[in-house]
């Protein structure tokens, strides 16, 4: 009897501790959306900003550390999808910020923005990894679908733009990079919407819907007879 009572208390304690855990989603989506929006606006050429060195702080700290911290708490809560996405983007943004650090002279190692540099930049296969994020997001909600589908298109157009620049077609390459920035901007807006939902859903006097899609992907149950 004592063993059974202890087991019940342990389970209740676990439920209580999980119930009191803060939601790590707002920090993750806020860091993701803020960093992606700044990069996207730069890709679109807003106010003639092309040098992204000033974004190192966002990339390494807000996105890099912020996303990784959020990911660990998503893991504690048992959310595999959120943990994988947040951790992956945390390392991606942090690594991208490191590449922009002037002392590393990554661009200089290619002799400037040469054909090899643009080809190497275009060969990044993040579009493949993000494609699986997009597929996994389909049975969640429409906001997630918008985030990862727009991001997928952003990666694809960015790679295409760099390949055109490698072929010395700067005009087409620049246009494609701007298109990539527009899709990235769309993804960041959806990320801010998700931030608003997670952070303000319980405080605002109205509902912030996510437009759930899980019912569209429900698996049929075979071999189960109805009563």
From TrEMBL:
Broad class of where this protein is predominantly found: membrane
Entry keyword Membrane: yes
Listed InterPro entries: AceTr (IPR051633), Gpr1/Fun34/SatP-like (IPR000791)
Keyword Signal set for record: no
Superkingdom, taxonomy of origin: Eukaryota
Subcellular localization: Membrane
Keyword list, A-Z: Membrane, Transmembrane, Transmembrane helix
Membrane topology: Multi-pass membrane protein
Transmembrane segments: 27-46, 53-73, 85-105, 176-195
Family under the similarity heading: Belongs to the acetate uptake transporter (AceTr) (TC 2.A.96) family.
Protein name: GPR1/FUN34/yaaH family-domain-containing protein
Upper lineage: Eukaryota, Fungi, Dikarya, Ascomycota, Pezizomycotina
């Amino acid at each position: 009897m004592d063993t059974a009572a202890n087991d019940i208390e342990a389970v209740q304690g676990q439920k209580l501790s999980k119930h009191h855990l803060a939601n790590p989603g707002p920090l993750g989506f806020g860091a993701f959306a803020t960093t992606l929006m700044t990069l996207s606006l730069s890709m679109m050429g807003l106010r003639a900003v092309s040098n992204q060195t000033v974004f190192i702080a966002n990339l390494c700290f807000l996105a890099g550390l912020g996303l990784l911290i959020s990911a660990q708490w998503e893991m504690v809560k048992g959310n595999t999808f959120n943990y994988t996405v947040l951790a992956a983007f945390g390392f991606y943004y942090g690594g991208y910020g490191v590449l922009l650090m002037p002392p590393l002279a990554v661009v200089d190692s290619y002799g400037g923005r040469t054909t090899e540099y643009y080809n190497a930049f275009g060969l990044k296969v993040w579009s493949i990894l993000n494609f699986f994020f997009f597929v996994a997001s389909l049975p969640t909600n429409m906001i997630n679908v918008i985030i990862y589908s727009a991001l997928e298109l952003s990666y694809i157009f960015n790679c295409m733009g760099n390949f055109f620049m490698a072929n010395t077609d700067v005009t087409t390459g620049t246009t494609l990079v701007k298109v990539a920035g527009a899709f990235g901007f769309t993804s960041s807006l959806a990320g801010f919407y998700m931030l608003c939902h997670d952070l303000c859903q319980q405080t605002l006097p109205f509902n912030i819907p996510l437009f759930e899609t899980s019912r569209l992907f429900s698996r049929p149950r075979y071999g189960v007879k109805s009563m």
